[in-house]
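How a chain folds remains the central question behind the approach discussed here. This step matters because it turns folding into a mapping between discrete strings. The sequence in question and its structure tokens are set out directly beneath this paragraph.
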Amino acid sequence: MKALPRLCMMLAIAGILSLFLFPMWKIILYAPQYPTGVQMNIWINKIDGTEPGTLQNVNILNHYVGMKFIEPDSIPELTYFPMVILGMAVLGLIALLINRPWSYLSWMIIMIILSAIGFYDFYLWEYDYGHNLSDTAPIKIPGASFQPPLFGTKIIVNFTAVSFHISEGIWLVRVSFSVSLHIGSDANCPDANPDLTDHLADRCL
């Protein structure tokens, strides 16, 4: 029973490190000329697409309406977000060594705060790209906003933009909640004692 929080913590560490292996966000643009969609993948440390020229195609579309080019090298988050994730992985290992409820809960609280900051930062990034348009754009649509949705679907002129987390991100959230639930359960359980009754053991499990 005592090993369960440690196992959940290890899964949470593996979950955040998986951000280096899988995209954490996908934005797909559908239009009559792109019936299968133009898919852009946002990783923890890079931005790419399903095809080698995806980012170039997106930037061409952006140019016509006055949006900034998406240049991964000029996005600072792609440089320091990986360091934040690695730092959280190290803190997770420290929590494993301490192996106390407060250490797991502290890690969880920090992770929630950093996740909220990350969502807000991504929203601001989208807002900037969708609203701060060039005055010299070939196509000008008064009052139009080209900001893609943070989640879900949004109609942008003749495009349908779909934005969502992929399954690995959902799995990470589930693991994190599992960590908090089992830590809370563990914190309410007394130390192991062979004389405890079966019903008390069942409560701890």
Notes: Residues 187-205 have pLDDT under 50 and may be disordered. The first strand starts at residue 25 and ends at 31. The chain has one domain: 3-204. The helical segments are 3-17, 54-65, 77-98, 101-131, 167-187, 198-204.
